[in-house]
Amino acid sequence: MTAAAPCPLPPDPTAPACLCLDIETSKHDRLRLHEVGAWRSDTGAQLHLKGDAPKWATQLNALTAGAQALLGHNITAFDQPALAALHPELALHQLPQIDTLALSPIAYPQNPYHRLVKDYKLCTTSRNDPVRDAQLAWTLFQEQSQALQERIAQHPDEAQCLHFLLTRAEQPDSGLGALFQQWRQAPRPSLLQAQKAWIRATQGKVCHTALARTTHQWLPDSDWHPSLAYVLAWLRVAGGNSVLPPWVGLTHPRTRQAIHALRNVPCSKPSCTWCQEQHQLQVLLPRFFPGITTFRPTPATPDGRSLQQAIVENGMAGTSTLAILPTGGGKSLCYQLPALAHFFRTGALTVVVSPLQSLMKDQVDNLHNKQGVTCAGYLNGQLTPLERRAMLDKLRLGDLGLIFVAPEQFRSPAFTKALAHREVRAWVFDEAHCLSKWGRDFRPDYLYVSRFIRQIQKERPSPVFCFTATAKPDVVKDICRHFQQLLGIQLARLEGGVARENLDYEVLAVPQASKQPTALRLLQEGLRDGGGAIVFCSRQKTTEEVAHFLQQAGLRCGHFHGGMLAEDKRRMQEDFIAGHLDVMVATNAFGMGVDKPDVRLVIHLDTPGSLENYLQEAGRAGRDQQAARCVLLYDPTDLDVQFRLLRNSRLTLSDIQSILKALRAIKTRDRAGEEIIATTGEILRQFPDQQRIDPEAHDADTKVRTAIAWLEEAQILERHENHTQVLPASLLVATVEEARTRLLHKLKDAALLPDYLSIVTALMNCADDDSLSTDELMGLTGKDARTVRAMLRELCQWQLLSDDTELGVLLVNQPPTAERLQALERLETALLTLLREAAPDADAHPHSPQHLHMRVLCDTLRRRTGLAIDPQRLSRLLTALAAPLSEEGGKQSKGFFRIVPMGQDQRYLYVQHSWDSIADACQRRMQLAKVLLTHLHSLRKHNNLLVTCKQGTLTALLQADATLAQHTFKDWDVALGAALLYLDANEVLYLARGKAVFRSAMRIHLHAHASRRKFAFMDYALLRLHYRDKAVQIHVMAEYAKLALENMKAALRFVQDYFSLQWQAFAKRYFAGREAVLQLATSEDAHRRIYLDLANPAQQEIVSAPPHDSLLVLAGPGSGKTRVIVHRVAWLLRQQMVQPEEIMVLTYNRSAAHEVRQRLWQLIGSDAAGVAVQTLHSLAMRLTGTSYTVALEHAEAIDFSAVIRQATDLLQAVAPPTLGTTDTNTDADTDTDTDDSASSLARARLLAGLRFILVDEYQDINRDRYALISALAGRTLASGDDRLALMAVGDDDQNIYEFDGTNVRYIRQFEADYQARRFHLLENYRSSGHIIACANQVIAPAQERMKAEQTLRINHARHDAPAGGAWESQDPVLAGRVHILEVPSHPLQAAALALDELQRLYALREDTREGGRWGHFAVLGREHKDLDAIYHLARQRGLAVRRIAKNKDDPNITLHTAREGAGLLALLRGEKRCQQLAPRLVLRAATLRRWLRRTYGPAVQEGQGHLHQVALAQFIAQVEVGDRDNRIVVRDVIEQLYEFKLDTLPSSTPRPNAPLLLLTAHSAKGMEFDHVLILDNGNWQQNDDAERRLFYVAMTRARQTLTLCHSPALGHAFIPDLQDLALATQPAPPVLTHDTIVRYETLPTAAVYISWPGKFPAHHAVHRHIAALQVGDPLTLCPPQGSRHWTLRNAQGITVSTMAKAFTPPPHVQAVTVAAIQVRRRSPEDAERGVPCERWEIVLPCLEVLAEPTR
Using CA atoms in the order 1650, 1654, 1656, 1657, what is the torsion angle rounded to 10 degrees? Predict the structure, then answer.
């Protein structure tokens, strides 16, 4: 035995001699005894014994001697049975027992929780001290005794019954029997006396028939006595605001049975007052719904009864029901009436599961303000902590009979614990379509509610009632099946259809541009007679734009969408309902549950995504049953928006797989067991930086929780209750600088300072009524969740933060808060006086109600006070006035009043305290409110109405206030909360959330048996079907709109059929022959453009191939490979709903990337914006973080081959296990799997969500590129989840870059590498039949061709066209044949004949009669030197000509260093902007095009102008692909400008007015021209496959005519094979007047003294002269004069450039012109040499040199 501490309770010799006992046992084994505590109430003797102490039983027996009773808390069920099993010899087993737990509901029936009791346990003040707990049980018993003695005095009949029921006939003088004899001064009553007393005590409170059963059958049966004692005590306070503890129902199940029989089962006797008043619907309906005396006659049941009444009858009878009522059909009444009736009869709770916070608030406000019902409440995230705590207390203590909750609340431990204290009579699922996977708003958390019901109610769940306005047959079936399978409940079905007779539906065809003006006109017409209007839009941004437009037009208009702050949404909603706003522009977030009776007009600016949504939203109109209009403004493009919204909102298989990997990675990181705790942000942090689920998006949390719900469905994990933490957030520093100073003293590592300061700054910038999550702080600091929490704790330890609760209070201006409080005090005083005058003795009869007539009371108050008050405000005042102030009398206080509605103007008021105590409490509360308001005003800063303060600070101020010194509050925090809630309820001030940091985490159990299981394709099947059904709904909505435009009656019939027919019958009736349309995840118009318009079966098969298959497309020249790539991407986006960020197209060069990007925009619009279209070089640089900008600004060259290899290494470093390395042993350590998940996530981060790759020109990859693509696609990875879908497009016949290391073998092994399907594209859309035939002839002899068995052919649409195309009739000489032009071997003579032929063709074109149009022509040479002669002759003849020459050795061939590119660079960097303006971050599309047109004129965009101007135009065209709303990031444009090379010119689609183009065959790859001429300078002699492929590529660039120069003397490897297919001509050689040509040599920067202009100050004249020069201006090359430098002078003789010392001009220089103006910036080396100028221009000359032509 251990020595006990001194007894804090003195013994009472006059008290009953009780042995007070408490034992401590093992948590998991009640028979493992740790300690025993015993105390005698009469002597004070005590024992504190160890369970294993020797001979302790003897000591306990000694203490037991002389005791009259054994007393303890829960001693009957726990302590005594445990001791009896362990030590049956103890003497205490013979004592009568007094159990304070069992007495609590009898002593305190209204709120059966004493201040010493929490749930069913004692609130101990020490740990492991059973003696102290035994003394607490005695203290509790003393207070219970006092309460029971008061009961005897006030309710003698009840006390007589309790004496009979709580004592045993065979021992009437022991235990409680002796006490009752002492208290009542009478012996135990006889059965007859008890029966008579029972009848008197329960008269009028129970059914007369059931009362007889009780007295004659149950009272004589002693087994019923404990249950009847609880029933009797509860009946006195029944009718609301009371609760039976849950353990009573478990230990005494007959209690609930008796209450049900007495009050809840109607009898048929007219004489039974109870049943007539409490069970007759005709009586209950007007009582709870003032002004409503009958149920709605329509819709009706099949037998003609009111459907609304039938639903209510099922609710009253407890028959589980699925009810379908049209919008505005009165469904709220259907569950509210039974809920209220059952609450006031039995105290049972109805739980309403509702999806929208606004819906909950509306319903509760209506019940409070319009119906006087105060027993309804709601729980959602909009409540402040004080409000939430008060609501949970009301729920727990029985003050609520109706609670509205979001399904997510069932994961909240606080809610589920409070709910455990209540008997749930019914579960109501509002908007029940959210339960169905086929419903338009499927919510997985709804499914969890059913699981929760099964867990707590086991095999006997309470009735379930489901309500919806729009449910088609498959949804109805799904809902019924769900409850049948999960709860074994069969739902009765009562369906009322969707028709609304008072609504006039219209559909108008209105293009997008006209929608806002049309809406304005409709609103002006529709609001002439008053009422409100709602305009629904699909997108949040649109709501704001339309609201602004309508406001500008003079309408009182607001907007509402899910992205707004909760307070802003509530304010908008309240203003609209109150009539302060006439029009609300909203998304569908405003659609469900918003109840404004007089909405006369609903306009849908955008077509909704389903008929269900449309009817739900349109159903906001005419809720008052008066006529209203519903107008849909239809444009077919609306459907694309809906499909896009569907795509963006869907959860992909990849998303769910990634979330599973993330959870497993968290488990590994935290070294957790099978359970992890993580927030949404912590899970998403495991994802890539550019993941598909954006952590900042409003739906990110929903998507993650939905994914977890599906993983739960797959039995991979199980999600339990949430785990929420509130972390320190109250600032103790005033400024960031103060925080910095303190942190510098605390931090050992100053590098950590920015992270801590970022948290402090975030809290300072956080609105005072807002909160932050740890997820947001993770994003700010880049730290993980554990580190953030640790940092917050450290900030608290270092006195920068306080963990005190921060309160937010919003004061009011009009009228001021002080005036409002004065008015409230006058009203409160007058109201209490009136109530006391009306019933001065009501406090003596707490169970006899005081009758209130609200209108009379309201009018009287108005006259007495002179203040404006209406019934709603009076109802709020009464409700707030009834709330208790704090703990009174040692127990949790019951309210001052209990209010029961009895009709429109009638209320019953039960007074539950004495009038004097009520007046005293109200006076103290008002005094507290006044002092509180004074302190709040003192804390106010400037004119800010929002006051924030710490609760501890405010409590301390109140305690120290002298004016409150005479008032005592047992708990100042509780009193403060009560006062704030009272002021908030009466609108003296408004409670705000207060600043806080929350970590709202999920508890997730990862099943060990599924540790290696994947979320597979089949697991995703139901969700895939759900999304497919949503796509079907969009098509159905479109069909309705189209029908309505023609015949509204037919459209309404369509709607009725949709909601009544089985799907197969409906589809057959309305989509016969068009069923395939319903399978499309895009509009019919988009499907036509993406798929049908291809009109090529081979292309269609490729485009629509299964999305995750690897594909090899062998595409001949001109066969539409770019088109197939573009349409495949469009098909993935639109039909497969793939996200743009999941797709990447890799092209060989920037021009091809531009072509793909441009075509994508043309095909699918802004959906193309997120698709990555880039070169392999760009991809490698992105992966490795290599920047052109940084490299070139540091004068560094980029080794692209090295960058590609680095990118490959990077991908391989994070690769999960490869094929052949995986462990197939399923019993292996699960760490392997979690490591695999971590590797997989690391790869996913690097790929940023990429899932699909399309590679163009695959035949032109080399070893490094092959390795990069292989690593990117995950070719060797073991898991299919980690591999990407790869589509390679190419043609081994067009592999022409072997000099660059490319190898045709890579495309040949593609099928084996990727298990790919092979497709062929053989129809040529480009060339004429003759050209195709010749090309086939040339390529046929090539070895190992992949298309050896196939030949290129003209496309099907042209198969009947002439082989020569249009030129068969247009060219009288060649008739469209391929022309073999025999030319002499002399280059000038050959060039002259070639140019003659081109000019002949030019003259034959009808579009060249007005000049220009040389952009249709191209001359191709084998090598660059082959072009010298024809370039010379073309310039000599005055033709517009451009030569594309590659000079890879000169790094200065860049656009960004040229004057034109540098000008753009300066514009992008904001160098010319006003210093007060910040640099631009983004640009709207077309901004740069407008700048280009203003700067250089429109001609440059047509390909006219010099090289750098045309290059600039092409660059801008490439970066500005998209519509006007597309935004381009300035930094990205700068990076692309540095990347842009002049040798990427020209575009694949040259401008017609561009010059004649001269380029090599290699450069022409990917391009096409109407007319192509291929030169022969003796370079086509080599007859090998590489040369054959090159010549083939050159030939197939031609669309209409192909001219092949052939010099027989030089020999040609391929032309002889074409003699039978082509037409050869041999014109006479021209006579040469000279044997030389002019060669144009642009000097590199190395030939120029580049620092020379920089030596002059910026204002020097030389800079002005250089600035005046333009490309092509003449220059004079002057020899050195006094120096060793040649110089260049302009036309005025001014030196504008100095050549390098090493420069020596070549012989025979004929002329010098300006070739380019380049821009240079001062380098550090220049600065060291004293160069003063920051920036200068350099003149690069072009030398015209006379030379012999090269052979």
Answer: 170
Out of 186-200, 689-703, 1195-1209, least confident range: 689-703
pLDDT, mean of residues 807-814: 77
Q: What is the pLDDT of residue 1236?
A: 62
Q: 905: buried, middle or exposed (CB in 10 Å: 19+, 13-18, 0-12)?
A: middle
Return the closest-CA partner of residue 908 out of 838, 850, 854, 855: 850
Residue 886: band (very low, low, confident or very high) from pLDDT cuts 50, 70, 90:
low
**What does the pLDDT read at residue 1448?**
43
* Longest Cα separation, the chain: 148
Q: Is the pLDDT of residue 714 over 70?
A: yes
Please name the residue that has the structure tokens 């318009």. Answer: 1093
**Interacting residues of 1166 by C-beta distance below 8 A, sequence separation 6+:** 1522, 1523, 1525, 1526
Q: What's the half-sphere exposure (Cβ side, CA atoms, 13 Å) at 926? A: 17
pLDDT at 1751: 58
Q: What does the alpha-carbon distance between residue 159 and residue 156 come to, in Å, rounded to a whole number? A: 5
Lowest mean pLDDT among 380-389, 637-646, 736-745, 1664-1673: 380-389
What does pLDDT average to over the chain? Answer: 85
Distance CA 495, CA 1181 (A): 62
Check pLDDT > 50 for residue 942: yes
Assess contact for 1069 and 478: CB atoms under 8 A. no
Peptide bond into 1546 cis (omega under 30): yes
Which run of H or of E encompasses 1112? strand 1111-1115
**Amino acid letter, residue 574:** E
- DSSP β-bridge partners for residue 1175: 1147
Token pair, residue 97, equals 């027992």
3-state secondary structure of 441: coil
Cis-peptide into 413, omega within 30 deg? no
Q: How confident is the model at residue 1103 (pLDDT cuts 50, 70, 90)?
A: very high
* Rounded Cα distance, 1066 and 1057, in Å: 7
Sign of CA dihedral 1344, 1346, 1349, 1355: negative
Residue 980 has pLDDT above 90, yes or no: no
Question: Minimal CA–CA distance to 755: which of 727, 733, 729, 777?
Answer: 777
Q: Please spell the DSSP secondary structure of 1395-1438, one letter per residue.
A: HHHHHHHHHH-GGGTTS--GGGEEEEESSGGGGHHHHHHHHHTT
Show the beta-strand stretches assigned E in 496-589. 503-509, 532-536, 557-560, 583-586
The rounded distance, in Å, linking the Cα atoms of 239 and 236 is: 9
Enter the pTM of the model.
0.74
1620 φ, ψ to 5°? -80, -15
Q: How far is 908 from 1263, CA to CA, in rounded Å?
A: 89
In a 10 Å sphere around its CB, with 0-12 CB exposed, 13-18 middle and 19+ buried, how is residue 961 labelled?
middle
Residue 7 in tokens: 């007894």
pLDDT at position 1447 over 60: no
The residue with greater pLDDT, 948 or 928, is 928
1426 pLDDT higher than 80: yes
CB-based contacts of 144: which residues, under 8 Å, 6+ apart?
100, 103, 104, 107, 108, 114
* Residue 1127 in tokens: 């349409």
Tokens 């208009």 correspond to 557
* Contact between 1440 and 1552 (Cβ < 8 Å): no
Percent of the chain with pLDDT over 90: 42
In terms of Cβ atoms closer than 10 Å to its own Cβ (0-12, 13-18, 19+), residue 873 is middle
Among 1710, 1711, 1622, smallest CA distance to 1675 is for: 1711
Pairing state between β 850-853 and 801-802: unpaired
How much is the pLDDT for 1125? 97
DSSP 895: P
When computed from its CA atoms, the radius of gyration of the chain, rounded to whole angstroms, is 44
Nearest one of 1569, 1565, 1572 to 1605, comparing CA atoms: 1572
Spatial CA neighbour of 1467 closest among 1516, 1524, 1521, 1526: 1516
